[in-house]
Amino acid sequence: MTQAAASRIDNPFFARIWPVVASHETEAVRALRRENLAGLSGRVLEVGAGVGTNFASYPATVGQVIAVEPEPRLAAQARVAAATAPVPVVVIGDTAEGFSDGEPFDAVVCSLVLCSVRDPVGVLRRLYGLLRPGGQLRYLEHVASGGGRGRWQRIADATLWPRLFGNCHTHRDTERAIVEAGFEVDSSRREWTLPIWAPLPVSELALGRARRP
């Protein structure tokens, strides 16, 4: 494996609160995480692994997971989770933009991460290049809502939300970015993971599968 110089993100506040948030995810979100990973096989790249929340749910058909996480405090916790994962997991302290590898992947997994990257289309094009032809992009992502919820998301994105939550932007058209990067979307649906009246701007998630033609 070849690797470019690691690009790290120093976000001590988010690194303190995200493990708490991840450990208190609703069962609805956990079920969507499991569905996002179901049926994977071969060699998988997970982008923005956080504390390794996905690791325990990878199916035995996966030969290896390379997980990139640029925040060093989160990466340290992800390595602990990797030690008890049911499949081999290697955690690398890098960004999707900085990561390089000489062997193509069978699948790329994105879970609640594309909302936080600075250039979604650029990152997705990078991931496209890391996949073999026919390889899958599995995504579970915060997405832009319509109506009053969408207006609230735009306000949140323009004020404190990205600063508090690791550059998370809640009002992104992530699926359009996936298509712009060259992927073909095979399936996609929206899910509400909190009551419609809940004040949080991250209640609506997109779960989908796309592929590199």
UniProtKB/TrEMBL annotation:
Keyword field: Methyltransferase, Transferase
Signal peptide positions (record): none
Molecular function via GO: S-adenosylmethionine-dependent methyltransferase activity
Keyword Transferase: yes
Name of the protein described by the UniProt record: Phosphatidylethanolamine N-methyltransferase
Boundaries of every Methyltransferase type domain copy: 45-137
One family name in Pfam for this protein: Methyltransf_11
Any single GO BP term: methylation
UniProt source species: Mycobacterium palustre
InterPro entries per UniProt: Methyltransf_11, SAM-dependent_MTases_sf, Thiol_S-MT
Keyword Transferase: yes
